[in-house]
Amino acid sequence: MPTQRPAASTTRWPVTLVRLLAHLPLPLLYLLADGLFTLLYDIARYQRQLVLDNLRASFPGRSDAAVRRLARSAYRNALHVLFETIAALHMDRDQLLRRVSIENPEELEQYLRRGRSVLAVAAHHGNWEWLQLACAARFDHPIDALYKPIDHAGLDALLRRLRSRFGTRLVPVGEVLKALLQRRGGARIIALVADQGPRPDEDKVWHSFLGRDTAFFAGTERIARIARAPLVFVHMQRLARGRYRIRFETLAASPSELPEGELMARYVRTVEQQVLASPQDWLWVYKRWKYGRAAAAC
Q1: Distance CA 258, CA 136 (A)
Q2: What is the pLDDT of residue 175?
Q3: 21, 44, 64, 96 from 32: Cα distances, Å
Q4: Is the dihedral of CA 210, 216, 222, 224 positive or negative?
Q5: CA pair distance 47, 26, nearest whole angstrom
Q6: Is residue 189 within 8 Å of residue 139, measured between CB atoms?
Q7: Cα-based distances in Å from 103 to 71, 155, 170, 247
Q8: What Cα–Cα distance (Å) separates residue 97 from each residue in 80, 100, 134, 243?
Q9: Distance CA 98, CA 142 (A)
Q10: What's the order of all strands across the beta sheet hosting 231-240?
Q11: Which one, 43, 138, 170, 198, has least CB within 10 Å?
């Protein structure tokens, strides 16, 4: 049976709070994030066990002390990303590009200049919201960013406003094929953060990821093949607090020449390498492994 999505919340106070916070300077937002970290992680222990369990399963060779240090760092970074995202509601183009540098824009531009659309895939690593905004601020070609609405109407509207600030066109995941057909005439960047887990009733593929059998959305490879778009991974590295660097890596210049399943396999391997290199920057405060392959088949 398909899972019923809950009705979107209309409670207004979260939107009001975010709008007020967005007017504060970023250094003050970091202080608030650190205070919230102490409250949530040390006192309330909110989702702390989830983060520890995720890390222990993914890094079985690390000592308990090392896992606990990593959990604290990852949890704090996740809160910093949240408050950085709030700050971006009023951050101008120049401020953003001073904080997010792009190492090799020519890797993307080589395809766009030849009239080819590009499927740019990323992960929940570093600050993925700043990543999308920085690319929209930097590149002249249009960006179509795929997204899933969240279950709070006001926050969803605020997030859509944020993501479209520099001209990005947001495309609900359920309308992606329609959008590809409607806009196939010009070169564009199709942006997708593809490492989240699908619901049990959604179409999925399975890969070994961080030592576990893991479900991924099947649509990533399908989009690349339908659009005949080079698959380009977008690395995001945290340099310091509030400072990031983007680097593009082509995973497949001609998707149609590769066997079925290879595009997603390359994406999963690249995400895994990124997480292993800098695990504190991935989103561990999330129930990524909700079910196994046997449960999904029921």
Answers
A1: 29
A2: 82
A3: 10, 16, 28, 21
A4: negative
A5: 25
A6: yes
A7: 29, 32, 25, 5
A8: 18, 5, 6, 10
A9: 21
A10: 100-102, 243-252, 231-240, 118-122, 189-193, 143-147, 169-172
A11: 43
DSSP helix, strand, coil percent of the chain (3-state; round to 5): 50, 20, 30
Question: Mean pLDDT for each consecutive 10-residue tract of the chain (298 residues)?
Answer: 50 91 97 98 98 97 97 98 97 96 97 95 98 96 91 91 94 80 81 92 94 93 91 97 98 96 97 98 94 75
C-alpha Rg value of the chain to the nearest Å: 19
Amino acid making up residue 174? G
| First-to-final CA distance of the chain | 10
Q: Residue 38 has which token pair? A: 């102490």
Q: Residue 128's closest CA among 74, 174, 84?
A: 84
Domain boundaries, the chain: 11-87, 99-283
